[in-house]
Amino acid sequence: MATSTLRRLLLPAVALAAAGIGSAAPASPTILRIEPPGGPRDGEITIRIHGQQLGEPEELLFEDGLIEVRSLKAIDGRQLEATLAIPADCPPGPHRLRVRTTRGLSTLRTFRVGLLPQQTEKELAGGKEAARNDTPASAERVDLPGPGGLTIHGVVQAEDVDCFWLHAAAGERIAAAVAAVRLDHTPFDPFLEIIDADGFVIAASDDHPLLEQDAMAAVTVENDGDYVVRIRETAYRGSDDCQYLLHLGRFPVAHLAVPPGGRPGEAIDVEWLGDPAGPFSGRLTLPESFRRNDAAIAGLFRARPLRDGVAAAEGVPLRITKLPVATESEPNGDAKKAAAHPLPTAIWGRLAEPDDVDWIRLEGAKGSKWRITSWGRRLGSPIDLVLNAHRDDAKRQRITGNDDAAGPDAAITVTVPEEGSFLLRIHDHQRRGGPEFVWWIEAEPIEPSLDLSVPPARTKTQEGLVAEVPRGNRVAMVFNASREDFRGTAAVEAVDLPAGVTASFSPLTPKAAATLAVFEATADAPLAAALARLTVTNAEPPGARLGGLVQATELVHGQPNRQPWRTSTSSRLPIAVVEEAPVTIHLKTPPVPLVRSGRATLEVRIDRHADFTGKIRLDLPFKPPGVGATAGVNVPAGASQAEYELSCSADAPLASWQLAVAATITPEGEAAKRWRPMRIATPAVPLTVAEPMLTLAVAKAAAEQGSTTAMRATLAEPATLEAAAEARLLGLPAKTEASPVRIEPGATEVAFEVAVADDAPPGRHGNVICEVRVPRGEHVVVHRMQATEFRIDKPLQTPAKKQAAKKQAATPARKTDTLSRREKLRQRARALAEAEETE
Amino acid sequence: MMQPCESIHAPSAAGDRRGARAALVGGLAILLAAATVTARAGGAGEIVSLEVYPPAVRLDNARDHQRIVVQARRAGGVTLDVTAEAEASLADASLASIRKSSGGDGPLILLTPRADGETTLRVSHGGQVCEVPLTVVSATSSPPLSFRHDVMPVFARGGCNTGSCHGAARGKDGFRLSLFGFDPAGDHFRLTREMPGRRLDLGIPAESLLVAKATGDVPHTGGKRFGPHDPLAETLVAWIAAGAPDDPDGGSGLPALEAVDLYPPETLLEGRDARQQLVAVARFADGTDRDVTDLAWYGSNNDSAVEVSPQGGLTAGGRGEAFVMARYQTITVGVPTLVIPENLEFAFPEADGNTWIDDLVDAKLRSLRIAPSPVCDDEAFLRRASLDLVGLLPTPAEREAFLADPSPDKRARLIDDLLSRKEFVELWVMRWAEILQIRSQGNDVSPKGALLYHQWLDRRIAANQPIDEMVRELLAASGGTFTNPPTNYFQLERDTLKLTENIAQAFLGMRIQCAQCHNHPFDRWTMDDYYGFAAFFSAIGRKRAADPRETIVFDRGSGGMKHPVSGQEVAPRYLGGEAPDVSTRDRREAVAEWITSPENPFFARRIANLVWAHFFGRGIVHEPDDFRVSNPPVNGPLLDALAARLVESGWDFRGFVREIVSSKTYQRSCQPLDSNRLDTTNFSHASVRRIRAEVLLDILAQVTETTYKFPGLPAGARAVQVADGRTTTYFLTTFGRATREDVCSCAVSMDPSLSQALHLLNGDVANQRIRSGGVVARQLEEGRRPTEIIDGLFVRCYGRLPDERERIETLAEVLADSDRRRALEDVFWALLNSPEFLFNH
Prior knowledge:
Structural class of chain B: alpha+beta
Structural class of chain A: mainly beta
Number of strands of chain A: 69
Radius of gyration of chain B: 31 Å
Low-confidence stretches of chain A: 1-26
Number of helices of chain A: 6
Low-confidence stretches of chain B: 1-43
Number of helices of chain B: 29
Shape of chain B: globular
Radius of gyration of chain A: 36 Å
Largest sheet of chain A: 6 strands, mixed
Number of strands of chain B: 26
Oligomer: heterodimer
Largest interface: A-B, 37 and 35 residues
Shape of chain A: globular
Mean pLDDT of chain B: 88
Distance between the termini of chain A: 82 Å
C-alpha cells in the first residue's frame, strides 16, 4: 500500500520537476500536458493546454511555423484552449511548441501530427466509470473509417488496461501502433497486444525497434471475427499523464528501408522490412531538404511506405547525405577481400548471418583526418554496431575502435596512415546477423567547426534555454563552445532577432570555453518572440562559417536516475520580448586590471522604478577562466549600489574579457502584484587579467609567545611604482598583530613587525598572506602574494620546572589485577614448578 | 550362510571422491534390504553374516599398520561389533603380524607388515567366516615424513587449525594456521620462517614450542592436546628432527588424496550402550592407502542417538538415527547408523496399493520400526491437494462433487484436474521466482525488467518446459535484459563470487560460501573447487542498451578468477568434475550444460528434493538447498529414485508432481500413531504445515469473496501472481513472504509470530473483508437459516461440515445475539482465526 501511495505521489512530482518547477513559483509559463497531444493533418482540432502561469497568453508558438493557430484563449491561469489548423502537407511527427504570454516563453513541448482521423477513448471522454474498457469483454468498439484506420486518444491510469475491439474478415490485416513516450510528456512505456476471439494473444509488441519504448504490431487474421487490441503500461504503471495516441487500422508496419538512405532528391527503389506479412517494395523520391529544423539536425527523413495502397502509420527513417553512396560488395568477411572505396563516402551493407563480419577498405590522402559515423539502430536496424579501424598492411594492427559512441551506434575518427588507406571492420556486438542487420557508414573529412549550446543545467529542467528580454533592459546568456579541429578565435552573431532586440557576444578566443551573450531590447520593442539563429564565423581571418547553435532540450526523464529518455534538438534560439522590469543595472568598467592572484571589486549601479524597493540578487553568469567570485550577492531593499568581489588565480590566462552582472528580481508583497519575477543583466564591460605589478616573497617566521619579531619580505625586482604601495599581512593567528608597511618605489625589501601576545595560540599557522595595494592613478590594484607560515612557540621551560613535571608523570599506576590471563598462567606454572622442585 | 565379502563392499569401493555418497547410498540400500526381509526385528538372534573391514588390506611401508573391525549381523539386520570375540589368522603368517588388544576405546585387531607378499586374512566368529586379501609392499622401507600427509593431519586431529583456535583469521595468541589446512605452504612458512628459532627447535626437537604447547608442557590457552608419547606428538618430533622439511616442489609430487573410506558402511545398533568401532582408510592416487582411524576427526549429527568418541568408537543412545562423519584432510565422509530399542515388539502394517515412492518410504520406516499412518479421508485430501497444487481452497461445490463421486479413481482425476489449472502454474512460477530471485532492484533491474523476467518464467512453466532446458536457457542467457529477460538473473547479482554461490545453492542445492575463504569443514568443497567454479562466471560482460533501463549481458570471452591464496588464475572447473575447454565457447553455456546434464549427481536430486519439500513441508534433505556430506538425505534411495524418475521422464514436471501426490505417503493422515508420533523426518504421517503467506492471503480473499490490489498488477490479481519480489504488503511481510533478495530456501518464513496473530485478529484482513465481501449478508438476504449459513462457513473455510458439538455451540452463540448478521460474521471471523484454517493438514 505504501508503495502505491508513494508512486502516486511521485509521478506528478516527476512531471513537475521535468517541467522546470522547483519549490519557488515559476516565473515563466509551464506546459504540463496537452490534450489531445496530437492531431490529424488536413484538419482543425481544439486542444487544451494544462500548465502554470498560463494567464494572458499572447501566442502559441510552433517553432517550425507549419501549424496555424486559429484561436487561443485562457480558461484560467492553468489552462488554455486553442484551435489549430493543420495543413495537408504538414510533415507528420512531433512539432515543437511553446506558449508565449506577456511574462515570457513557456517550457518546450511537442504536438504530434498524424495521418489518420482521430477520436477519443470513451473511458476518457465519457467519465471513468461510464465506459470502462479494462477487459476484452468490456472493450470499446471501433469502426475503421477506411483501410488506413484511425487514431484513438486515450489515457492509461494506474494499473489500467484499455481494450478496443474491431471486426476483421479472414485474411484481413489488423495493425496497431502507439505513440506514448514519443508524446514527450512522461516516461510512459506502453505494451500492445492483439487478441483473437478465443482470448489468445496473436500479436504483441513492447518496444518496437523503431519507436523507442513505444509499440507496434500487426497480424493477418485467419478467421472472420472480433479482435481486441489491448494497451497497458508495460509494468502496469500508469497515471493521468500517461496519454497515448493509438493508431488502429490495416496499415503496414515496416521499420527498416533497404537501402537505408540516399542523396537529396534521388529516386530509389526501396525494400521495406519488418512487416509480419514479409518485405515489400516501392519507389521513393527523397526530399531535397527538410522542412523541420530538428529533423534536419538528425539528418533523417521519415518515409511512409505504402502497401496495397495503405500508408504506414509510422514513418521509416532514411539517411539523406550529400556524400557519394556505395554498397558493400560481399564476400567481404575477410580483410583480404575488402573492396576499396575512395574517401569521402557513404557505404551501406548488412550482416547477413550470425558471426558475419564486414571489411571495407577506405582510401584517402595520407595524414588526412576522417570522421566515421555509423548508422544502424537509428535507421531501425536491430544491429548493435561495433566499428574498428585497422592498418591496411600485413599485420592489420588495430588503430581505433568504438561500440556505442552514438547511442547503440558507433563513431570513430581516423587519420589515414602512410599506406594511404585503412580497413574498417564492422560487426554486431553480440555477433548476431540476419536480413535486417543493415548498416550505413559515412566517412567525412573533419573540418574546423565550433558549435554553441547552453551549459547543461544542474537540475534536469528547461531553465535558461530561452532568452526573455524585458523591454528597455537586458538579459545575459552563456553559450559553451564545442570545437573540433579549430583553435582560432571565432565571432558569434545573431540574426532573426525580434524587432527592437540587439545582441552582443564576447569573442571566442582560443582560451575561451564559452561566450557571454547580452540581449538588449529597446523600451518600445513590441512584445513578441522570434527564433534567432546564431552563426559562428572565423574571426581571424573573418568569414568562414564554423557552426551555430545546437541545443538539445530534455523532454522526458525516466529510470534510472532520471535519465533523459526523450530529447529534442534545435538550431534556433527562442527569444521573447517581455514586460518591463522594475530595475535596470549597470556595471562600471573596472578602471584597473585584475592581476594574477589579485582581487578586484566590480561596482554595480542599481536604478529602481519608483514603486520597487525590494531585494534583488546579483550573480555573475560568465566568469573568465581563472577568475573566481561568490555565487551571488544580495542587494538589500532600497540599495542603489552594490559591489561584487572578484579574485584571480595565479595561472589565469592573460587576456581581456567581456563581463556582465545579472540580477534576479523576486518581487514580494505588494510589488509582486505589479511585477513578476524576472532576470536582467548589465551591459557587458571589458575586464583585463594582467601580470602582477610586483611580487613579494614573505619569509617564514617564528616567535615565542609574548615576543615581537620581524617578518621579512623580499621583492623579486625593485618596485617600479607610481607612488608608495601599502602592504599588510592577512591571516595572522589570533592575538597576533602586524602593522601595514609602505613599499616605496625602488624598494627591494620590507619587514613587518609582528607582535605575539602571551596567550597567542602556539603552533604553525600556514595561511599568512601579504596583500599589497598598488596605486594606479586614482585607483588601487590589489595584489596578493603566496601564503607563508608563521609559527608561535611556547617559551622553553626552566630545568627545575621540567623535573617537577617528570616526577608527576612517573606516578606508578599499575595494579596487580591487570595481569593478563597468559601472565597469570605463566606465574601459576612457575609457582607449580617451584613447588614441585621443593618437594 | 556366508556371503562373499566383495559383493557387500562393492558399492563403497567407488574410486572417486564421491565415495562417501556412494558408501552412504549403498549402505542404506543393504540396510533397508535386510530390514525388508524380516518384517519383525529386534531381540537376540542368530548371526547370519560376518563382515570384516576394511574389505582389503594393503600395508605400504615399515611404519604402516591397519586396524580391522569385524561386524556380525543378526537376522533382522541388527549389527554387532565382534572384533574382540572374533578369531583372526593369516594364511601366511610370515608377511604380517596380528596384534589383538583393546586399544583406544574399543577392541582392535592390528596388522603390521613383516615381509612383502600377498596372503589372506581369515576371520571367524559364531560359525561365520570371512576372508579379506592382504598385500604387503615395501615392508622394510621407511619413507621420510611428509609435511602435508603426516604433519598437517596432526593439526587437524589436534584441533589446532579450527576457527576457534589457530585457524582463526588472525590466528590465536600470535600463532596462525590456515583454517582446516587450506594453505599448507603458508602453514609451513609460519612454522619455520615467520619467527625463526621460536616455534621449532631443530636441536632438541621435543622441546620445540610447537610440541611443548600441544603436549601441555608449557602453558597453552588451548590446553593439552595430546600426550608426549602419543603418536601425534611422535610424528611432530620426528619431523622436526628430520629438519622440518617442506614437501619437495610444494607437495606437487605427493600422491593426491583420492578418497576416504569409513567402515562399517552401515550399523544398526540394538539397545542403549551398544558399541561399534569405526575404521577410516585414506586412499591415494598412487594406489597406496593408509589407516587414518587415529588421524581423522569424528562427529555425529545426532548425539542423542549415537555418540562417537574422538577415536571413532560409536555408542548407542536412545532410539533414532544418526549420521556419523569422519574428516581427514579435505574429505569428509559419513555412514548412517540406526539405534533401535532392545527387544522391540513391532509389526509393520500390511500395505497394498503402494506406489514405488511408498515402497521406498516404507522400507526406511520398517528399518526404523515405525508404522505409517493410514490414508486420510476425502475431505482432508481435497483440501490438502487443492492448497498444495493450486494454492486455493476447494469451493463448496467442488467438495460436494468430490464427496459424491463414488468412483475409486476420483483422487487421481482430481489430481489431474488440479494439475491442469493455471493456478498450478502460477504457484510454481512463484516458487521458481523465489529461486531465480525475480525482483526489481535499484538501477540494475527496473520493474519492467522484473516483470518481463517473470513473464519469461511463466511461459516456461505453463508450457511444462523441461526444467533442465529452462535452467540451461537461464544460465547461458546473453543479450538485453528486455529482449532476453533471463539475463536479468545476472543483473540481480553482479558480484561474481556471490553469483557463483547463488547458482550453486539454487541449482545444485549446495552452500559453498565457506569455501570462498577456506576449505569447507563439513563438506567436500575446497577453495580450488570454489574458485574453479566461480571462473565460469568471471567473463560476464555488461553494457548499457539503448533503453536506459536495459543492460546487455554478454560473454567477454576473457576474464580470469584469481585464487586468493596462490594469486594464480584458476581455470574454470566443474564442482567435483573436470576442467572443460572453454577457449572457444561461452563458459556459462558449458557450465549450464554440466549442471543440467543427466550425469550431474546434484541437479536432479536438488530439484526432486525441492518439489518433495513443497508437498511435505520438509525435504528428504533438509533444508531443501543444503546438500552436503554432513547433511545426508533421510532416505537416500528415495531421493535417488525421485531424481532418476525426473531425468527419465524428460523432466516432465507435471508428471513428477502427479506421482508424488498420487502416493500414499502424500495422502497419509496427519494423525500420528504410537510408533510414529515422534517421527518428524521420515514421512510416516502428514505434517501439519502453516500455509505460506501468499496462499494464505489468496484464500482469505477467496473465502471472503474480495479482491486485492497490488501495485504493478492489474486489479484482481492474486498474491501468488506478484511478479516483482519487491512488491509486498504488510500482511505478506508479516506472514514471512520471501523478499527474493536471498536465494536461500529459508527466505520463506513459516514461523508463527505474535504480529501474525494480532494482524489476523485485529487487522483489516479478516474483519473488514468479512464485511466488504458481504458473504454473510448475501446469504441472510437469500433467507438462509443460521444453521445452513454456519454449515456453509465451515465448508468454505475448513472444507468440512461442523461436528454436532461445533454446530450446536455456534448456533447457540448466534441465536443469543439480536444482530444476526454480526453474530454470523463473528463466527466467520473466528473460523478465519483458527489454526484449522491457517494450516494445511
